[in-house]
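Appendix B, example 12.
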Amino acid sequence: MGVLVPGEIFSLTSGLTLAVLSAQTNYLGRSAKPKAQRPHQVKQRINTMPTNNRKFKSLILLSLGLALLWVSACRNQGETTAESKAEAAGTVAPGATGNDDHRSIILAFGDSLTEGYGLAKAQSYPSLLQKKLDEQGYSYQVVNAGISGDTTSGGLNRIEKTLAANSAATLMILELGANDMLRGQDLRNTKNNLAAIIAKAQAQKITVILAGMEAPTNLGEEYQTAFHQVFPDLAQKFKLKLIPFFLTNVAGKPDLNQGDGVHPNVKGTPIVVENVWQVLEPLLKK
């Protein structure tokens, strides 16, 4: 259940109360549709009802009350989920042994593609990357700091806390921007947010690997080109290692993606790990 914005909250409460008011007008034989009314207007209308129509009053108030209760529950659940995810993301490393683990940290900082949306925790790319590091004899711990639905703005809001929780981080794989693109956000803001995240990480002496993303053609050639260019531009400006396209050899292939056609499945995720590994491995130390 998602978080509702104020407009959606009003639409929900108005919709339920209008449904009851419509039932009242039909019962009375009037065909005119009631206009959208705010809660205080509904209350005024209830109070001015003829006495013989007051039996509708309890029904209207009940529907309005249930709507507000439902909205409150949605909002609280959404806020709690977002806050708990932000608190948890970037604080637990697969295979880590708490304070006794003195390995350098590779911070996987991103959205649902990093978190492992639709996958078991052990199937996410950070977990598979941890397994590969262990097999290759590299002493690093990978921290999954991915949050599904996150944007570059959200990433910027939580980067300082994430870095503080992972003071042993020496490398960061930054994978954000896809949700900005899907929401059609101003790419100047996307670029500025990513630049700020990179600057904060570099201030902590962390080597940043930037994961490039691509926009689909249906967004228009101009937007597609501009979005693509965000990543090489930042890589050049901050002297970063760039993964040209995070989903190379996975995007657009139904057998390698989940039903939504966006998130890699258990077959596609190992390919993503290889895309990361090609850029990451030369930076590792044994």
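The chain is about 50% helix and 10% strand. Residues 1-43, 54-83, 92-99 have pLDDT under 50 and may be disordered.
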